[in-house]
Each structure stands twice: as C-alpha cells, then as structure tokens.
Specification:
434 Repressor (Amino-terminal Domain), 13% strand, Endonuclease, Chain A, alpha/beta, 7 strands
Length: 291
C-alpha cells in the first residue's frame, strides 16, 4: 500500500496479515542481499511480480513463498511456518461476504480498521460509522445510495454495524473521534433518530478506549476544515502508520511520513479546540433540542 494510491483499482484488497507478510518477505530478501532481479529469476517471473508480492497487491502463493525463502537462505522450519501464515493470509476476511455491496477500495479500509491498534478519525459531515446507530446508519446510507434496493441498503447497514464489534473485543483498539458541531445539526432520519444517535455518542464516550471530541462552531476556521480522514496505527512493526482519505468516487491511502504527520498534527490541533466538559455539554444540549 503506497502513498497516494487511488482506491478505484480492481485488485483484491489485502488483509493486514498479507501486508505484514509482504513486508517480511521484503526484509528477508534485503537482509539476504538478494536483488529484485535475482528473486524474479528464481521464480521465473518479472520484478514487478516480486514488488507486488512484497506490497501485498496480490495473493501470496505458497509455492512462490517457499521458493523465495529458500533463495533467501531460510531453513525448512521458517519456510513451513511462513507458508502456513501465507495460506491464512490468503483467506478472505469476514467482510468478503459483503463483496456485492462493498467496493474494493473500501475493503482495504475494513481490513486496516480490523487490525489497527489506534484509530483517529475526523468527520465534518456525519457521525463516524463505528459509532452510528442502526437507524442513523440507514439514513446516511440511503442518502449516499439513493437508487439501491432496500435489500442492498440493509446489507450495507448490516456491514456497518458489524464493523462496530471491534470496539467490544478484549483487545479493542483506541478510537479517537473528532467531529464538527455541524454533524449534530445535520438532520438524518428525523428528531427521534438524532436524539437516539446523540445518546449513543454520550454512552460510548464513557468507554475508556473511546474519545469523542466535537469542534464547536465558535472555533471558527481551523486546520482540519477539509475532507474526512482516518489515521491507523498498528502494533506490528512491519506496518507503517496509514491515513485514509475519501472522495466521492474512491479513496487514497497515504503512508509517506510527511503526509501522515500532517494529518496527525491536524487531528491534535482540532482536539485542542474543545474539552471533555464542553463536549458533553454540547451533546446534552443537542439531545434536548431533539426531544
């Protein structure tokens, strides 16, 4: 996954495990002093194939992994363990069942979300998907996909709600949400739905691993007043921090340090525009307005 990659391509989205193994293959090759050209000759493929394997852009064929690690001087035990992991990495994620309503560029997002240790998100328009209620999610998705059938719509809603189960895991990631006050004023589904959604935000903000910051209108212009984005950090050393930014027809995944640092700084600056007390006061005020 590289800086500036559009998410509109047709290749299958990698799982986090496949990304990790791709990085390990690259490290193993470089540590053995084997060039891309030499690795390609060992498999009788092009150097592009080796690059794509290392970048997790294609599945890790066990026969390829076996031959590459043998070329890099790995012993039989290491090769067998790596091949076993490669076979697991090629198994589709749970979200594969939703492939008919899940664009490939967002499949990658779900994989990153599932494997992340820390998630930071900025939302100027809607409550972030991980915190949406069923009725709010349905309203948002109906607005975004006005022409899909009710069956497809419900499947999209089900996918969104299923993603939320990661917050209930024993090893749940830290989620830090920064949203604009405008999100609370944007009517989705009617007053009852909005009140229910705000109550959900108040509830989850009590969790130790979830923070919800609301940037008030009074903050005026600020550094993050732009497109929504999500920052991912992982426990695994092989994976860099990644930022996802979405546009109307696709997405971008950024892993260059300068890009990631800019988004992280913006998130930090926006969080300083409010406080826990202010957040709860604003949420409670808006809940009353929808009563």
């Amino acid at each position: 996954m590289s800086e500036g990659r559009s998410g509109t391509g047709s290749t299958s989205a990698p799982t986090v495990l496949r990304m990790i193994l791709g990085r390990r293959l690259q490290e193993r090759r470089q540590g053995a002093g084997v060039s891309l050209e030499a690795a390609a000759r060992a498999l009788r493929v092009t150097t592009l194939t080796i690059r794509r394997l290392e970048k997790a852009e294609v599945g890790l064929k066990p026969v390829y992994v076996d031959k590459l690690l043998e070329t890099y001087g790995a012993d039989r035990q290491e090769i067998d363990e790596f091949v076993d992991l490669a076979e697991r990495a090629n198994e589709p994620g749970w979200w594969h069942a939703y492939r008919d309503v899940l664009p490939n560029w967002f499949s990658a997002y779900v994989s990153l979300e599932t494997g992340a240790k820390t998630l930071r998100t900025y939302e100027p328009h809607y409550v972030t998907g991980l915190l949406q209620t069923h009725r709010y999610a349905r309203g948002v998705l109906r607005g975004g996909f006005p022409n899909v059938s009710d069956e497809d719509l419900e499947k999209r809603v089900d996918l969104r709600l299923r993603r939320q189960s990661l917050l209930e895991r024993p090893d749940a990631p830290t989620l830090w949400v920064v949203m604009e006050e405008a999100v609370l004023h944007r009517m989705v589904g009617g007053p009852e739905v909005m009140r229910e959604q705000i109550e959900r935000l108040l509830e989850v903000s009590e969790l130790a691993h979830v923070s919800v910051d609301v940037v008030p209108f009074t903050a005026g212009a600020h550094v993050g007043a732009c497109a929504p984005f999500t920052y991912f950090r992982f426990e695994e050393r092989e994976l860099p921090d990644i930022v996802y930014s979405e546009i109307l027809s696709g997405s971008m995944y950024l892993d260059q340090r300068s890009d990631v640092a800019a988004h992280l700084e913006a998130h930090n600056r926006m969080s300083l525009l409010t406080s826990d007390a202010d957040n709860r006061a604003l949420l409670n005020r808006m809940r009353k307005e929808y009563s």
